[in-house]
Design a protein that fits this description.
It is found in: Cell membrane. InterPro entries: AAA+_ATPase, ABC_ATPase_HisP-typ, ABC_transporter-like_ATP-bd, ABC_transporter-like_CS, MetN_ABC_transporter-like, P-loop_NTPase. Keywords: Amino-acid transport, ATP-binding, Cell membrane, Membrane, Nucleotide-binding, Transport. With about 270 residues, the chain is of the alpha/beta class. Helices cover about 35% and strands about 20% of the residues. Strands 6-7-8-3-9-10 form a 6-stranded mixed sheet, sandwiched between helices. A 4-stranded antiparallel sheet has the order 2-1-4-5, covered by helices on one side. A hairpin with a 2-residue loop joins strand 1 and strand 2. The longest helix is centred in the last third of the chain and has 16 residues. It is globular. The two termini are about 25 Å apart. Bound molecules: adenosine-5'-triphosphate. Adenosine-5'-triphosphate binds next to strand 2 and helix 1.
Length: about 270
């Protein structure tokens, strides 16, 4: 994980909402500028700016309804946006362009709150599905790859089990293995522990942390403040559809600059150590 610094939390003004600027010549893996997204009359993203560098671990926090999931879904092309720039790997993300989306999904994996495994397919077939369908990987190679990925999430022996034979934590770990099957450069994690019983949260966070340690670029929406503080290079606080404050975890949690962030941290876990 590269050490990221942010000027944003040192300047308590409009700069709070601005993002870290990469050194000249370094193209961010994800570039988001002035992104706007509406559902009908409800403008959910009101000009989001965010740059994510290769290998960076970014956590997005904020109140319910602040637009966190919508932002992730835009990055993965699951939602159309109305205005602004959104580029992954230098390529514009356009939810209406099916061939471009197929390419995007090879680079960007996503894990959802509710696992979204195919219930009628075995664990192994769930993991093999995208490589065999999208990149026409031969079945033997895909199964070998699935075995390797399931071992990585501690579930090698479950390759022939059905999803309903697994606990929620195990299902989520299969979902992570499935997301890794296309060898993505970026993993988007949308509240991946929210649907789990508390005793199953740790095993999933451990897998996510190991991916972070291995250099995976991660953008995570999370309500696990302690986890965000521990694994992130940078934390982004969203408020009312904008990036309101951003910075290194120790800055953001330890020295919040805006009343909105102070209030939010006060609401969750008594401030996650803030
Ligand atoms: N498919 C949709 N159609 C219409 N409105 C939507 C849709 N998805 C989200 N919204 C609205 O967009 C706003 C932001 O939702 P979003 O899920 O992005 O927030 P969030 O910050 O991720 O919240 P939470 O922490 O509760 O998941 C909310 O007002 C929500 O009702």
């Amino acid at each position: 994980m590269p050490a990221m610094t942010s000027a944003s939390t040192t300047c308590p003004s409009a700069a709070l909402a601005s993002d870290t600027h990469p050194a000249p010549g370094i193209v961010p893996l994800v570039h988001i500028g002035g992104l706007r997204k509406r559902y009908g009359d409800n403008e959910v993203l009101k000009g989001v700016d965010l740059q994510v560098q290769r290998g960076e671990v970014v956590s997005i926090i904020g109140k319910s309804g602040s637009g966190k999931s919508t932002l992730l879904r835009c990055i993965n092309g699951l939602e159309q946006y109305q205005d602004g720039e959104l580029r992954v790997h230098g390529q514009a993300v356009n939810a209406g362009d099916a061939p471009a989306l197929r390419e995007l999904r090879k680079n960007v994996g996503m894990i959802f709150q509710n696992f979204n495994l195919f219930p009628h397919l075995s664990v192994g077939r769930n993991v093999m599905l995208a490589p065999t369908l999208v990149t026409r990987q031969p079945k033997d190679a895909a199964r070998h790859n699935a075995q390797r990925l399931l071992a990585r999430v501690g579930l090698a022996e479950k390759i022939d089990a059905m999803p309903d034979q697994l606990s929620g934590g195990q299902q989520q770990r299969v979902a992570i293995a499935r997301a890794l099957a296309m060898n993505p450069e970026i993993l988007l994690c949308d509240e991946v522990t929210s649907a789990l019983d508390p005793e199953l949260v740790g095993e999933v966070l451990q897998v996510v942390e190991s991916l972070a340690d291995q250099g995976m670029t991660l953008i995570m929406v999370t309500h696990e403040m302690g986890f965000a503080r521990k694994v992130s290079d940078r934390v982004v606080f969203m408020h009312q559809g904008r990036v309101h404050e951003t910075g290194a975890p120790e800055q953001l949690f330890g020295n919040p600059q805006t009343p909105e962030l102070r209030q939010f941290l006060g609401m969750v876990h008594g401030g996650a150590g803030a």
